[in-house]
Every structure is written in C-alpha cells, then in structure tokens.
Design goal:
The complex is a heterodimer. Chain A is built from seven helices and no strands. Chain A starts with a helix and ends in a 13-residue tail after the last helix. Chain B has two domains: 83 residues, no CATH class; 205 residues, Rossmann fold. Chain B is α/β, with parallel strands linked by helices. In chain B, helix 1 packs parallel to helix 10 and helix 4 packs parallel to helix 9. Chain B is built from ten helices and six strands.
Chain lengths: 225, 315
C-alpha cells in the first residue's frame, strides 16, 4: 500500500488535469488543483528554512570548514525572519505590507541584499573576460565561426556597432553590424532554440506519461523503474 | 532593420584620456602577444575594471535607436486605448535588477504617461521589494497624482510559480483576495470589470529566469489570448526568440534593449528629455567592456598562433 497509494494519487491527479484542459466544464478542476499546489508550495518555505537551519547548526557544532560563515548565514536568516514576521520598524504596524518603506525588512533588502546581489552578478564581467581570453581560440573551423558570431553580437549589442558600419549604404544594410547581430539572433539562434524547445517538449510529454502511468517511479525513492 | 544614423556621443576630456590610456595598455599587451606572451588573468581583471569604471566616472551620453523587437513593445503601449489595464510582473531578484529594473521603470513611466492603469505583481519572492523601488522612483516621484487602488495596484508576491498563473488566468481574486497592503481587491475601483488576466489589455513580464516571461506565455498569453511583452536579462534573451513575434509581441534584451526603449521614449515624448536614463548611462561601460573583451580575444588568439608556430618550428 505504501507504493500503491502514491501511484493512485499521481494517476488520478494527472488524468484529471489532462481532462480539465480538454473538457470545458472541467476547467475549474485545474484551477482548484493549482490552488492546492500553491498551498503546498508555501510549505516548501518551512522545509527550506528548516533545512537551512539544520545544515548550518550541524556545521557549527561540528566546527566543519567554513563554520564561521554559518554564523553569518544564521544571523542573517533570523534577522530577516524576525523583521518580516514582527514587521520591525514598520510604521503601518503588524497588519501592513512587509515591504513598506522604512521597515527593517525593506531597508535591509535595499541596503544589503540589493547591492550584494548586484555585486555578485557584476563579478561575471571579470570572469567572462578572462574565460573569453582563454577559451575563444580559432583552433578549427567551428571555433572560428563561433568566434566571428561572438564578435558580431558583442559589437551589435553596443552603439559602437552602429557607428562602425554606419557608412554601409542602405542597399547593403544587412552587412551593418547591428543588423547582422539581429540576423544571428533571428535565424541561426532561433532555429537552434526551437529545436531544443521541441526536444524538451517531447521529453516532458513522454516523461509525464511515464509518471502518470506509473512506469517511472524514481520519485517514490525507488531505484528501479 | 536599425537605421544607421550616427549615434550622438558627448565625450569629455576625461573620456578621451581614459580611452587613450586603455588603448595604450591594450596595444602594449598586443605587442607582447606577437612574441607569444600570455596575459595574466589579474591584468585582464584590471582592464575590465578600468573599462567599466571610466565611463561612469567620466559620463558619456549615448542616443540609441529602437530595433523592431523593442519598438513593437513601445508601439503596443503607445497605441493602447486610454485607460487600458496593463499588468507588470516583477520576476527578478537583486542580481538581475541593474539590468532589468530600468525596463520596469521605463514601462511604468510610459504607461502612466499614456494614462493607463497598472497592476504590479511578482512571481519571485524578491520581486515585491523591487516593485517598491519602481513605485518610489517613478510613480510617487513623477506621477504623484496617481492613486493606489484607482490608477495602480500592487498585488505583491505569491508563492506557487506557474500555479499562480494557472489561477489568475481565470480569477484574480482567488489568488489575490487582497493587495500587498491587505486591502481587498473588491474595494478597489481599478478592479471594476477586471476579474482575471483575460480582462487585461497587455501583460509585461520583466525578468528572465524561472518563473518568467516563458511561463506567462505558456499559462496566460496563449490560453487567454492576452498580448505578452517582455524585458529580460541579456544572457537569457536568446531563449525567448522562439516566442517572438506571435506569442510574445516584443522583447527587450538586456541593458541594450532598455537603452533603446529609453531613447525611443525621449524621441517620441520630448517632455521626458530629462528623465533618468540608467540604461543609456550603462551603455558606456557595456560598450567599453565589450571592446576590452574583444581586444583580449584578439590578443589571446595572436599569442596562441605565435606560440603554436614557435612550437612547430622548434619541433
């Protein structure tokens, strides 16, 4: 029964959701299941938070490598949790929006989370430059094509691309760098992306059928299908 | 196609000096590469830092032209009947914000300039706080007469990713009975006649991750036949091209897309000539950083081929 009950639930919900798409009177079933899903999704926060605390407390108690960072993580976690739950420094009181201006939650977000997140992302520029220098070598024909495409896109994404080829007459405007960049995005990139998307779509459909029909059972924690 | 009218770049002496310094350094490294010398990655980091910082210290002003894919979003907003209701979804986090928040801001400015009604919401937990930035920087500063609940509403964040979309496509109030201030949607004049996403005239998803524009297309745009426009981070822009132009009416890709939109705003609406243009300002660092990356690719290739030739000759 431990195995059969989850399989029956999966089969029933899967079939009902498929039917709700094709049978108009059953449309609201999908909506109701989505509401159930959203309620369950909220519990993921509890699980995620609990797991974060458990992992870092075990790291701290075991004095494992980098345990000092766990203190920062836990302190930040509990500070933000308290700021959000108790609406600390929130002028509107406990009933107001958690992101109200002036609240500890919003101020911490604006002045800590925001710059830190942007800084982490900005570091990409340095690594991309270093990686491009090392990896973009015209070693063979394929690598050369990739290199040329990268150059066109890099130039095409800046006003410099317009400036460099603005002398090319209108009748040959396809050879202006921004237009070449648009062509690369609209033709070769589009073709590749569509192929990937169709492949993913077919894969998702077949995997969903396997799960609904109980052929794929790894989500139950079994090793064998 | 993009018109090839020259861009206007206002350059100061500081800009010329920093460009000269950068060019000298790159030429010096290029000469080194002719001898087969590789460049230490710390040197690359210094050059990137300089390329990004110099245009910010010595600001360079650019004008850009909207490409077709960007102009379609602009034209759609511009041609909506007065008083249309548009939803903007803030589906991003602080790491993506420098690139996509200018898009959210300029969309909001454009929508209010055209007297449309705007519903703000977020599928990302971090989006609600970022919505506040747009409300402060654009709505409360530039359009103080716009009233919350009448001209705009901030629904905030709701967990559930595409599950949220699956519900609001048929009923807003089932998922969002109240706005982010806990005020019931039923009491807001804005929601008179707006029961679900089907009643919206346009949806703009700003982000680029999951959930984001793709989920809006799959779960709302296609089933409810509502036009979707998007603003996304440059690294994710290529994956959205398959949805353009039928399922996604237009797309702003990265800071360049935002800069094109800002330029179009200033061109069409002279009253916004002095509006904040963060994307246009960021085109300076982006342009110079791209040039530096290209220069290092060339230097790397020269060093590689010289070293290979030497190796062959040695063998």
């Amino acid at each position: 029964m431990k195995r059969e009950i989850p399989l029956i639930i999966t089969f029933s919900v899967g079939v009902l959701l498929i039917l709700s798409v094709f049978i108009p009177p059953a449309e609201h079933w999908g909506e109701t299941f989505s509401l159930f899903f959203d309620i369950i999704a909220v519990f993921a926060f509890f699980l995620g938070g609990g797991n974060l605390v458990r992992t870092h407390i075990s790291k701290l108690s075991g004095r494992k490598a980098g345990w000092a960072y766990s203190i920062v993580t836990l302190a930040a976690f509990f500070l933000m949790l308290a700021a959000g739950l108790f609406k600390i420094a929130n002028t509107g009181g406990i009933g107001a929006s958690v992101t109200e201006n002036g609240s500890l939650f919003q101020e911490s977000f604006n002045y800590v989370m925001n710059p830190l997140g942007a800084t982490m992302y900005a570091l990409l520029a340095f690594f991309i430059a270093s990686a491009s220098y090392r990896a973009f070598r015209a070693k063979n024909r394929e690598a050369t094509i990739l290199l040329v495409a990268a150059f066109i896109i890099l130039l095409g994404r800046t006003p410099l691309g317009v400036l460099v080829t603005s002398w090319i007459p209108d009748s040959w405007d396809i050879f202006q760098i921004p237009n070449m960049a648009i062509w690369i995005m609209n033709s070769p990139n589009l073709a590749g992306q569509r192929a990937i998307l169709i492949g993913i779509g077919l894969g998702v459909a077949s995997m969903s059928l396997r799960v609904i029909l109980g052929i794929e059972r790894t989500y139950l924690g079994e090793d064998k299908a | 196609m993009i018109p090839h009218t020259p861009i206007i770049a206002i350059l100061g002496i500081g800009t010329y000096l920093s460009l000269a310094l950068l060019a000298t350094g790159l030429i010096w490294l290029f000469v080194g590469s002719l001898k087969g010398k590789e460049v230490d990655r710390r040197v690359i980091f210094v050059f990137v830092l300089f390329a990004v910082a110099a245009p910010l210290i010595f600001p360079t002003t650019f004008k850009d032209h909207a490409s077709d894919i960007v102009k379609k979003v602009f034209d759609k907003i511009d041609n909506l009947p007065k008083g249309s209701t548009v939803l903007i979804s803030f589906d991003f986090d602080p790491s993506m914000a420098p690139e996509v928040q200018p898009m959210a801001n300029v969309f909001t400015r454009h929508l209010f300039a055209k007297n449309h009604k705007v519903i703000f919401m977020s599928l990302w937990a971090t989006g609600q706080a970022l919505t506040n930035s747009t409300l402060d920087d654009v709505v409360r500063r530039e359009f103080p007469d716009k009233k919350e609940g009448v001209d705009f509403a901030n629904l905030g964040y709701k967990a559930g990713n595409q599950g949220v979309l699956n519900v609001i496509v048929t009923d807003f109030k089932k998922m969002f009975p109240n706005d982010s201030r806990n005020i019931p949607l039923d009491s807001m004049p804005l929601f008179t006649g707006i029961n679900s996403c089907r009643d919206l005239d346009l949806i703009l998803s700003v982000g680029g991750g999951f959930p984001g524009p793709k989920e809006w297309v799959l779960f709302v745009g296609d089933p409810a036949n509502v036009p979707i426009g998007a603003g996304v981070a440059a690294v994710t822009a290529p994956i959205y091209y398959p949805y353009y132009p039928k399922q996604m009416l237009g797309l702003l890709g990265g800071i360049k897309g935002a800069a094109e939109y800002e330029s179009e705003m200033q061109r069409v609406y002279p009253q916004f000539a002095s509006m904040p243009t963060p994307a246009l300002i960021m085109m300076g660092p982006q342009t110079l950083a791209h040039v530096v990356v290209m220069a290092f690719i060339i230097i790397g290739n020269v060093a590689f081929f010289v070293a290979r030739r030497k190796k062959r000759e040695g063998a």
